[in-house]
Amino acid sequence: MLSSRRSPLQLPQGRQQLNGPKEPLPPVSIPAVGEQALDRNRCDVLAPRQYLSSRLNGRIRSQNGRYSLVQQSDSHLVLYKDGREAIWANQQWNKGVVKTIMQARADDGNLVSYNAAGKPLWSSDTWGRPGAYLVVHNDGSLVIYHGKRPVWAVNTGGPPLRPAPP
Which InterPro entries does the entry link to (predicted)? Predict the structure, then answer.
């Protein structure tokens, strides 16, 4: 884990956040909200209204156990491989994040990190997709789905993604 005495997390080159998938993502076997109930007890899913607390170093993990998304007490939301290698972070080090929640309001679907005053400090910018949920895949990819359609992803499980041409 990163401590508050260390500098902000630096990610390996080629790791990047996307506002939508640019390459095919792994298929999702989670039923779309509305087709069947989303299994809120799965270890790899952050469902609507669920959150990760920085006070508890809240985490969800891939089904194979190799990847964990952790809301750390130093404010970083970090994806770890094999419990040691940080492969993605939301770059909120020491900014006072107390929780990251999968929003569930009627017009939402945003993954948001909040401080103790309730001020949003970071988001996936996926609003307008009610019922959206986050999955930590066995290859290390983080994906937000709206139904079965991926709407946001962090590609950490394969070759680096190239930015789309302007």
Answer: Bulb-type_lectin_dom (IPR001480), Bulb-type_lectin_dom_sf (IPR036426)
Residues in the chain: 166
Which pTM value belongs to this model? 0.71
Contact in structure between 65 and 140 (CB atoms under 8 Å): no
pLDDT tens readout for residues 69-94: 999 999 889 999 998 899 998 888 88
- As a whole number of Å, the end-to-end CA separation of the chain is 37
Range of the domain at 72: 45-155
For 80-92, give the DSSP string.
EETTTEEEEE-S-
What total of structural domains would you count in the chain? 1
Residue at 118 is within a domain: yes
Tokens at 63, concatenated: 């089904």
